[in-house]
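Reopening this one. Same input as before:
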Amino acid sequence: MRITSIIENTSNKGLSVEHGLSLYIEKDSGQKVLFDMGQSGMFVRNAESLGLSIADVDVAVISHGHYDHGGGLKTFFQANKKASVYIHMDAFLPHYSLRDTRLRFIGIDNDFANHERLILCDKQTDIDDNMMLFANVQGNCCYPFGNRLLFGPAETENDDFSHEQNLLIEEGEKLVLFAGCAHRGIVNILRKAEEIVGKTPTHVFAGMHLVKSGLPQMEEDEFIESLASELMKYRNTMFYTMHCTGEEQYNKLKSFMGRQIEYMACGDSMELFQK
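Same output, byte for byte:
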């Protein structure tokens, strides 16, 4: 399996960047999966620069109802004429972010909410025999503090992220977990994955929403150390992070986790070999 970042906040390869996420997944079987679409059509151009074709994508997934993950939906339908797009049934509800003293809409354009190629998901959806989506993650372990600034569907309600879904792909001995922002907390998501399939993911690709925590520096450092401690309990799992984790926060995780965690910038690829 080969995973390539085609949208991320940063790039070491000279590609265009934006605040967002899109991963191009090439399975060993030859099937091509797109996980998230950034906030614009930039993911298509970056894919072309990397020799990848959005037209060839067989399955697409939108992880949750925020513009920086599903904003490229219109462009995707223009560039790809065959793939179904799996999205949670609550993803098109309004979502907001508190910036300074006002709420800013950060949802997905619902002009495409009834598109014929959309597949609306709920708590758990099997895509095929070795690929599934799950939502309904519970638990409060290392729950991101930045979530308190996010609201929806009502402007007066904190978002509970019922619209967030995560992707599991199993090929051979590899069980790979993909999480867009891990708003429900990456540890809680890992625990839910284990509960569903009865085994631990071998690899995790996820934003972890550690930026804009609003915590005093000492408390943020303590939180990151606590998160690193929880993740390091998964001794046989390799973590790749990006996007809303934040570079500074990643460096702190890295100082604890060492080789167990790496950062994926736009244009970076990772190949997962069979044992």
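So the earlier flakiness isn't reproducible anymore. For the record, The mean pLDDT is 96.
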